[in-house]
Amino acid sequence: MQNAENKMNKAIAVLQADLAAIRAGRANPAVLDKVTVEYYGVPTPVQQVGTVAVPEPRTITIQPWDASILGEIEKAILKSDIGITPSNDGKMIRLNFPPLTEERRKELVKGISKRGEECKVAIRNVRRDSLEGFKKQKKDGEITEDDLKNLETKIQKLTDKFVANIDTIIADKEKEILEV
Q1: Which domains are present in the chain?
Q2: pTM of the complete model
């Protein structure tokens, strides 16, 4: 039971990390989480090679500690799929986030809903695996029929709780994106 809950928590954490990386018209440093820079031959996250700041609601600045890697950071951002063109002023890189169009907002909401459904499927797979484990224990004589029914009820309640949590997370992110 504890194992199932841990797996469900991990599924939620993955969903939240995915949603944090979606840009909603506002500058959010989490969009840079998956961007890595070649720094002395080692792929390094952007946050570890400089200071990432949000001076204005639609701007992110990256000030590297080593000015020689400005070009590398710029290339890494261009190669990534965040869809923002960096501007390099010789000391720092600025990322200006344009306001999203209505079309793009609706497209993002569809993608968010899809990710939410994928997370729900992962939660249900954990439930299925747990139920199979419980039935095997019953077959092996480790638990009684009553224990099996109680465990099935508990795992279903746990699943329902996590699915409701996913719905809340998705609704909040959709509201954030549709906000103009």
Answers
A1: 2-20+101-178 (1.10.132.20), 29-96 (3.30.1360.40)
A2: 0.69
